[in-house]
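Internal tracking record. Fields below are filled automatically when a chain is submitted to the structure queue. Please do not edit lines marked as system-generated. If the sequence contains nonstandard residues, flag them in the REMARKS field before resubmitting.
Queue: standard
Priority: normal
Entity type: single polypeptide chain
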Amino acid sequence: MTSLRAGRRTNVALLWLLLAAIGTGMVAYAVGTTPTAFVIAVAHGAAGLGVVLLVPWKSVVVRRAARRASRGRWVVGVLLGVLAALAVAGGTVFALTGYRPVLGVTALAVHVGAGLALLPLLSAHAWRRRQRLRRVDVSRRNLLRTAGFVVGGAAAYGVLDVTALALNGRVRATGSHQVGSGDPDRMPVTQWFTDGVPALDFDTWQVSVGGRWVSYAELSAGTDVVRATIDCTGGWYAEQEWRGVRLERLVPAADIRSIDVVSATGYRRRLPARDATSLLLATHAAGAPLSAGHGGPVRLVAPGRRGFWWVKWVQRVEASREPWWLQSPFPWQ
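SYSTEM-GENERATED OUTPUT FOLLOWS
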């Protein structure tokens, strides 16, 4: 009976740690400002490494359950273990080696992909093996034990973070590694849900702003300069000096709640009108015209936001009366 209670406590602790790791990982994609991003990154790392600390106890539970489990449940259990191991290993390798794609795939992509694949399997497994919450699950002893794993995970994350700093130099609070600061040609070319860089004609490019057309020549003559860091959810960041025209010069903020910025691909993000003073329609980075791969002729620069807010190939800017938060927090388009 004691061993059964121990197994239950291990499973409950493991479930909560995995849900915490997945939840904080998803939130981390949307947050790019400090200190919030740092707190989320630490919580994510602590939860993930807390799972590793539970492995010795979980291995005992697995061996005991394997003797009586059906083949179907055994296969699901093994798959859950493999995906969890891939998620932890991918995150650890990325932290230690930085942004280094192998055949176009990064360790962070493995980490995220395994985590997303883990979620439906974990949900189904937890539902099939669901148990009622008992008073003992929230006892002082169990809470202290769970807190111990969280603290242990946080300590392990601290060691990993210091090691990553020694190996790769400065890492942002979001966990992204520096690639191409001051040199746009070295920045990775990344796309969200597109078939690649569209065919573009810089000479004839126009942006519709509030119902009027603004040519690329007009925007490229802009003298507004913003020094900002693009922090891509792919795991890299770069600080550049961006030049173009501030949105406040083109879109009056009075009487509107938000601003829609739309790409030539149909991709769009909605931002609060109050941000018009800091948002930039950029045509240049580090003194050179933006390449098509990096969003040229015109891309949005949104300081303090993750890279998927920095809309590439901007074709329309529209005033909106809808609240800016009434949209998907992730770039599903």
